[in-house]
């Protein structure tokens, strides 16, 4: 079968429908997954809200059943619900039809083994690609069966189990699930838990056309709408998820958007309060606030490369309690080392109730102490050559090559990392003052962009 090899990414399969992602490919992915994984039990399939996701999911299921694998169809779900299904019920693996936070023309597939262990490019995704290219599949003499399973209630109960307080304060909350499924599930959580929360909905009806563009709160322009609504409605805070809801972002009272880097200092405090002296994973993009929060609250900081598969691998290796990424992913040991976009909401509800504070009162001091550039992307032809140039230029600093090039001085630090899929270098920089951050940001950018 002729395929576009570029759709097989570091962590998933993703491309344009119906150019590179087709029903035929979906069927072959089901077959190849069955041949590579050889699952010993039922395999979960689910889909996000995209227009063709259900169709593609059913073709995956057909490929699995034609290979003799029994399938459990859990329907329309978020990514963290998909992880929950495989982990909670002990299924043998799973394939979700989803393209995460990409624009509506994108579709794709996320694949995991039993115990919610992700497939990576090196271990699973490239092998599945090669099997599809060979296209030598043989249908099983015994066809697998498909059964449906609605996991909504069990998932809601699980999320509510993270809320340890019997009584939380009354909150007015703006939610923006970016037309994904998170809004539906959050309302179910509030209703089933009888939580005293007044919900103001924004983009909260599932719509796979994503009428307002790329459904990704990590993009600064996509944060304006929720910030303005939180401010104008005098809400206590706002919650935004990306379209498949495995990343969560918060907007504090008054419309102050809380970068995940800053917000995670609160979650670290909550986790270590309940589970002291545990290991916490962080990524190299921004580190100072996280390391300080971990140490101040009695934890042990452990660094990992960026990317969910690397972080989950490192969490298992050191048995870490929790992991955070500045892109909005949060990972929990008690959630099968996977990322979840709803658990942090429960933790913020708890924190604000227990401490009787506004979210802005907690976040603003962190913002005032750690000054960050945001992620700045630049198209670069020779990514490796440019990173070597930067490493030489800043050789008098503390240089790390764990993930791209990280350079640290006493008053500023930065990371330049290559994109896995595009000819881009990504810069993130933090400093002890706003002026220094801006000066050093522009200085490093000038080097990246010279001759780019």
- Beta-strand proportion: 15-25%
CATH topology of the largest domain: Alpha-D-Glucose-1,6-Bisphosphate, Chain A, domain 3
Classified by CATH, the class of the largest domain is: Alpha Beta
Distance between the termini: 37 Å
Which shape, going by the Cα principal axes?
Answer: globular
Radius of gyration: 22 Å
Instruction: Give the tally of structural domains.
Output: 3
The helix tally amounts to: 14
Strand order of the largest sheet: 1-5-4-2-3-6
What percent of residues adopt helix (DSSP H or I)?
25-40%
CATH superfamily of the largest domain: Alpha-D-Glucose-1,6-Bisphosphate, subunit A, domain 3
Mean pLDDT reading: 97
Number of strands: 22
Class from helix and strand fractions = alpha/beta
Domain Alpha-D-phosphohexomutase alpha/beta/alpha: 7-136, 153-252, 262-370
Family: Belongs to the phosphohexose mutase family.
Protein name: Phosphomannomutase
Cofactor: Mg(2+)
Question: What brief labels describe this structure?
Answer:
Alpha-D-Glucose-1,6-Bisphosphate, Chain A, domain 3; alpha/beta; 452 residues; TATA-Binding Protein
Summarize the structure.
The chain has about 450 residues and is of the alpha/beta class. It has helices at about 25-35, 55-65, 80-90, 125-135, 150-160, 180-195, 225-230, 260-275, 290-295, 310-320, 345-355, 360-365, 385-395, 435-450; strands spanning about 15, 45, 70-75, 95, 105-115, 145-150, 170-175, 195-200, 235-240, 250, 255-260, 280, 300-305, 320-325, 330, 340, 370, 375-380, 400, 405-410, 410-420, 425-430.
């Amino acid at each position: 079968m002729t395929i576009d090899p570029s759709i097989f990414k570091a962590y998933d399969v993703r491309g344009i429908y119906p150019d590179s992602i087709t029903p035929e490919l979906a069927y072959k992915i089901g077959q190849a997954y069955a041949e590579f994984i050889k699952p010993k039990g039922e395999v979960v399939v689910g889909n996000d809200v995209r227009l063709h996701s259900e169709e593609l999911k059913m073709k995956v299921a057909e490929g699995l059943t034609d290979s003799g694998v029994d399938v459990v169809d859990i329907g329309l779900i978020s990514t963290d619900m998909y992880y929950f299904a495989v982990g909670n019920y002990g299924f043998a693996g799973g394939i979700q039809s989803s393209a995460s936070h990409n624009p509506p023309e994108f579709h794709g597939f996320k694949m995991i083994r039993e115990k919610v262990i992700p497939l990576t490019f090196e271990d699973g995704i490239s092998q599945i690609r090669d099997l599809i290219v060979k296209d030598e599949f043989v249908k099983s003499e015994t066809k697998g069966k498909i059964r449906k399973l609605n996991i909504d209630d069990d998932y809601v109960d699980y999320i509510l189990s993270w809320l340890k307080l019997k009584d939380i304060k009354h909150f007015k909350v703006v939610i923006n699930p970016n037309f994904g499924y998170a809004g539906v599930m959050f309302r179910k959580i509030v209703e089933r838990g009888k939580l005293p929360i007044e919900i103001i909905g924004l983009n909260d009806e599932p719509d796979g056309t994503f009428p307002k563009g790329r459904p990704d709160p990590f993009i600064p322009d996509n944060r304006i709408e929720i910030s303005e609504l939180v401010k104008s409605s005098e809400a206590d805070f706002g919650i935004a998820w990306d379209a498949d809801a495995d990343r969560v972002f918060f907007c504090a009272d008054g419309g102050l958007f809380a970068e995940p880097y800053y917000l995670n200092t609160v979650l670290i405090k909550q986790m270590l309060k309940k589970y002291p002296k545990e290991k916490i994973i962080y990524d190299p993009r921004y580190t100072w606030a996280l390391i300080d929060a971990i140490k101040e609250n009695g934890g042990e900081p452990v660094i990992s490369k960026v990317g969910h598969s690397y972080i989950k691998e490192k969490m298992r290796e050191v048995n870490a309690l929790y992991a955070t990424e500045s892109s909005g992913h949060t990972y929990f040991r008690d959630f099968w080392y996977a990322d979840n976009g709803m658990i942090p909401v429960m933790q913020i509800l708890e924190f604000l109730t227990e401490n009787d504070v506004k979210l802005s009162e907690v976040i603003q001091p962190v913002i005032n102490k750690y000054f960050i550039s945001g992620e700045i992307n630049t198209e670069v032809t020779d990514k490796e050559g440019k990173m070597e140039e930067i490493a030489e230029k800043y050789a008098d600093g503390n240089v790390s090559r764990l993930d791209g090039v990280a350079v640290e001085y006493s008053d500023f630090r930065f990371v330049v990392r290559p994109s896995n899929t595009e000819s881009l270098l990504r810069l993130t920089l933090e400093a002890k003052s706003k002026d220094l951050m801006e000066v050093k940001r522009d200085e490093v950018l000038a080097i990246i962009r010279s001759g780019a």
